[in-house]
Write a structure and sequence with these properties.
- The chain is largely without helices or strands.
- The model has no long low-confidence stretch (mean pLDDT 87).
- The chain has a two-stranded antiparallel ribbon with strand order 1-2.
- Bound molecules: iron/sulfur cluster (SF4) (2 copies).
- The site of one iron/sulfur cluster has 14 residues, from helix 1.
Length: 187
């Protein structure tokens, strides 16, 4: 449906690898570089095996893989796999960088197979959903429904006092009988 400003809204939808339970990016990889770890389900790329053929990026229905044109290997979210298993970090810091960095705690991290984990509870209690389930990929990452915030913009608020595009008034002209700046500052 086509609408016009101010009846429009902006939706920010972050999307990285969803670490699918049944990832179509894995079986298409001709070298075995793309793989899913049996121990925790994280989907990774072995850069030593990757030949940069891009088959996996065509197979991923979410468009989250990107070829590194410099290194000629496929890259994507690793779920900060080094960080989340880093025993030198305090346990509460063993989370992906995006989860730790988000100022509003919009991202949660945990085990979706543990019904008591923070993420399972959030999904269960808030109607969390998987993206594009029709693809049968069974993504581990889920989304929570957006909490809509309505902001009413009144017409008079559309005219900003500091609008940089507004037409400037004519600048005051100096009285030519008065001495100029050059007259009083030159020596
Ligand atoms: S989101 Fe794409 S890249 Fe990630 S596991 Fe699923 S199919 Fe593979
Ligand atoms: S780009 Fe790399 S990871 Fe992707 S299918 Fe080709 S070899 Fe496998």
């Amino acid at each position: 449906m086509k609408t016009e400003f101010p009846n429009t809204e902006t939706l920010h939808f972050p999307k990285s690898c969803l670490h699918c339970e049944d990832p179509p990016c894995v079986p298409v990889c001709p070298t075995g570089a793309s793989y899913k770890r049996p121990e925790d389900g994280i989907v990774l790329v072995d850069y030593d095996k990757c030949i940069g053929c891009k088959y996996c990026s065509w197979a991923c229905p979410y468009g989250v893989r990107e070829i590194d044109e410099h290194q000629k290997v496929m890259k994507k979210c690793t779920l900060c796999v080094d960080r989340i298993y880093d025993a030198t970090l305090p346990e509460e810091r063993r989370k992906p960088a995006c989860v730790l960095a988000c100022p509003t705690n919009a991202r949660l991290f945990g085990d979706v197979h543990d019904p008591d984990s923070e993420v399972s509870v959030a999904i269960r209690e808030n109607g969390g959903y998987a993206l594009m389930p029709e693809w049968g990929t069974k993504p581990a990452n889920h989304y929570l429904p957006r909490r809509k915030q309505r902001i009413k913009i009144h017409t008079d608020e559309l005219v900003r006092a500091d609008n940089p595009l507004k037409k400037e008034r004519a600048q005051p002209k100096p009285d030519i009988k008065e001495p100029s700046l050059d007259d009083v500052t030159s020596w």
